[in-house]
Model the fold of this input.
Amino acid sequence: GIQVEQSPPDLILQEGANSTLRCNFSDSVNNLQWFHQNPWGQLINLFYIPSGTKQNGRLSATTVATERYSLLYISSSQTTDSGVYFCAGVSGGSYIPTFGRGTSLIVHP
Amino acid sequence: NAGVMQNPRHLVRRRGQEARLRCSPMKGHSHVYWYRQLPEEGLKFMVYLQKENIIDESGMPKERFSAEFPKEGPSILRIQQVVRGDSAAYFCASSPIGGEQFFGPGTRLTVL
Done:
């Protein structure tokens, strides 16, 4: 299967700051998702983004499939953004997502 | 429009007992995935099922673990003769074929 690397592994921000999280893939993907796992353990869908750019409020994501990476942008961060952000990709011919190890984000008030 | 349901949310078992975890997919979703998450780690794929069919169980331990998704009723992940190392959060996700996955709230299994 593919390898998925997320960076940075840990991130600490002051409320109001912006950040970029990155997800690199060892092979091309035809299905990519970003999730937020909140401090209570719930996994929340952020984006389903095999390619292109999407925006949802303060969050946006861009996937460049040909270069095997995806970026998640968080603008004007809030304390409720704290948690772990995972990306997961599915390579061609498979239906099994491979998850990265996540980026742990702490936003201080 | 109910999301993915999992029960129980918390399960405590003694070593050697059986654990049964249930997952009801979102309406209209025919595919179910089970994942395990150890503390401070990401999600590890275990098994991928359709109704009455295991499509891929490459992530499932060969012994003590089994999964099913019957024609009627929820998908079940069964762990026999649990050991302390089975303590983890077990998540279920559902999707239409090849599409976006949605996760349930998880079952936290603690083995004493």
